[in-house]
Specification:
Elements: H1 10-13, H2 21-29, H3 31-38, H4 48-66, H5 71-84, H6 92-111, E1 117-126, E2 135-143, E3 146-152, H7 162-174, E4 179-185, E5 190-195, H8 199-216, H9 222-226, H10 240-253
Parallel strand pairs: 3-4
Antiparallel strand pairs: 1-2, 2-3, 4-5
Length: 254
């Protein structure tokens, strides 16, 4: 068994150039899915819900540039992203998301009232001790002394998830003097959460990054690494296309 840890860079051996809050959260919740995504490059297609969020962020950023929230821009961006992601515009779920877009827009336009935008979709990288690759993320909206991540959902959560807190912890590490907000919007209401103490979630990012490094250090062979885990294909998080590709991987391992 080869050991890339001898070269002091297990990530390079597996062609991984950075981590992200998303990859770390995936490793925590579903290690086999992490193996499929980040070692075998099996991608899960974007759904209309995720596209709705991206389109809403885009229209909001345009408002900061032009002064008004353009609902036509919101609709056009949604359609464009669906076409690019090969999402069926005639699918019932897609049609439902499209009809709700203006409601999301109204809630965001009326209540997202932060001032003095400094950057939108800003890439940030944080280096950790003894980890040769950075943790990289993209800040939705960065204002003076305030970082805001916009989340759209058909249901309003009572509290942010641990995964969302880890995401915001990365931004706090990049801008330690800024406070961080999660802004949730549904078609009917909004809610803001200011996350004041993320020290434990910063430690979680560091701990899991080292855990991933140790896992990768077991072998240079991604198939061998995959043999140590097995997917739960009953989980709803495995979409049909991703599940079919993953089945081929684990079938070949034997």
């Amino acid at each position: 068994m080869s050991n890339p840890a001898l070269n002091n860079d297990a990530f390079k051996a597996h062609n991984i150039h950075h981590l992200s809050p998303s990859s770390i959260n995936t490793y925590i919740s579903d290690p086999p899915m992490w193996v499929a995504r980040y070692l075998f490059n099996v991608k899960s297609p974007s759904g209309p819900g995720a596209i709705r969020g991206i389109a809403s962020e885009f229209a909001l950023a345009k408002k900061y540039e032009e002064g008004t929230f353009d609902y036509d821009t919101l609709q056009a961006k949604f359609v464009t992203l669906c076409v690019e992601s090969m999402v069926d515009l005639n699918n019932k779920k897609t049609e439902k998301e499209r009809t709700l877009l203006s409601n999301f827009g109204e809630v965001i336009d009326s209540n997202f009232d932060y001032k003095n935008l400094e950057d939108y979709q800003e890439r940030v990288e944080v280096k950790l001790e003894d980890i040769p690759v950075p943790i990289m993320g993209y800040i939705d909206f960065r204002f003076k002394d305030k970082i805001v991540d916009l989340k759209t959902s058909t249901r309003m959560p009572s509290q942010p998830t641990e995964a969302q807190k880890r995401q915001m912890a990365l931004y706090s590490m990049a801008y330690p003097d800024s406070s961080v907000d999660l802004f949730f919007a549904t078609p009917k209401e909004h809610k803001k959460f200011t996350l004041k103490n993320l020290s434990s979630h910063k430690k979680q990012l560091e701990k899991v990054a080292h855990t991933i490094q140790r896992f990768l250090s077991i072998s240079n062979d991604k198939h061998e690494l995959a043999s140590f885990v097995y997917p739960n294909f009953d989980s709803w998080t495995w979409g049909y296309k991703m599940k079919e590709e993953a089945k081929k991987i684990w079938r070949d391992i034997g």
